[in-house]
Structures are given as structure tokens and as C-alpha cells.
Amino acid sequence: MNILIIGCGNLGSVLANEFDRNGHDVSVVDENPDRIHLLHEDFDGLFVTGIAMDMDVLRDAGVESCDAVAVVTSDDNLNITVSQIVKKFFGVENVITRITNSYRENAFKNKFGLKTICQTNISANTIYSAIIGGGDNINISNNSNFMIDSIKVDDKYVGRAISALPLKDGASLFGIKRKSGKVLIYDLMSNIEVESGDTALYIREG
Predict the structure, then answer these.
(1) The pTM is what?
(2) pLDDT tens digit string along 155-198?
(3) Topology classification of domain 134-205
(4) CA atoms within 13 A on the CB side of 150
(5) How far apart are CA 177 and CA 164, in angstroms?
(6) Which of 43, 95, 150, 166 has the most crowded Cβ, counting Cβ within 10 A?
């Protein structure tokens, strides 16, 4: 896939590195040129310095030929604006928008028709489930389109990095829940080893 990532902070750089490592064509836009150092030394994609709302910057990053766009800066308003530009002016349908303010997520989704990911809601529900000991399927939020599945990890993976765990169709690995109830969030860069009794947490579109 040809993937454009807007924002090269902690989240954006992790996504860019992971997509690049898995053979996808990746372009990254960030107004801070120093953030290129968050990308791996062997990163084979394109880094464009500029303001993401600038349509020429988006063109330089290849928005006109991309299959998907992830808008993941730390600024909700910027993310909403850029997502609308990408959808309305460049006709990209597969746009994922990061929202940090959980109270604004549904308003943005319903008003602008965006596919949103709210890390606050995801983390809160996962931690709540870890404490209470909920069922296998956990609603992220009342109006969200995403779910978390929990699956007992086969002992053959004990001692291996959790990145070795098999992925489910349409789902990505979100973290590990220990026997003690402790939840470790997988950020693609953490060196987390599987332990006996672990449960893998997968996030998927519901």
C-alpha cells in the first residue's frame, strides 16, 4: 500500500517505521525537520517538511496517489482540518483521524463523517477491563466502530517478543494482559516478551 502519515511524533514515527518495515510505500509530513530522526536509519520512505494544511505540501508527499492517510498529530483541530482536505479535495476515502479529546470524538465523527481513533477511550477501556476482568469483547466507546478482542496466547510463544504473535484478519495487536491483570500497551518499539498465561489484546473495527 501507498500510505501517507501526517505527523511524525511518537505515534506517527512508530507507524511510519512499522509500515516501512513491512514493505509499504510510506510518506511522512511534519513541520519540524528534526523529527526525521525519529525514523529508523534504514527508513526507505519519504519525509516532507511543511505545514500539513498546505495542499502543495500534501501533493509533494504523494497524497494524490496514496491508498490511505493517517492524520496523527497531537492537535485535534489540525487533524480534523487536514482530514477534510484529504477527503474532499484529493478524494482519499481511507482516512484515519487521531482524536485525543474523548468528549469531542463522537461530534467529529458524526459531523464530519470521519473514521476516528481515540487513544484515550481505547486505553481507558482496556485498563478498566484489566481491573474489572471483563469479557472477551470490550466496547471502546458507546458510539465507536472499534472493538478489542482478547485471546489466550499459546505457550509456544513464551519467551518471544510479542511482535511474533500472529495477527488476526482485520485486527492489529494492541497489547498484552498479564495473569496479574497488568496491561502492557504495544507501541511497536517496546521490547515486551511473552510470558506464560498472557492474553493478547487485538483492536479491530466492529
Answers:
(1) 0.63
(2) 999 999 888 888 766 667 777 888 887 777 665 555 788 999 99
(3) Alpha-Beta Plaits (3.30.70)
(4) 21
(5) 16
(6) 95
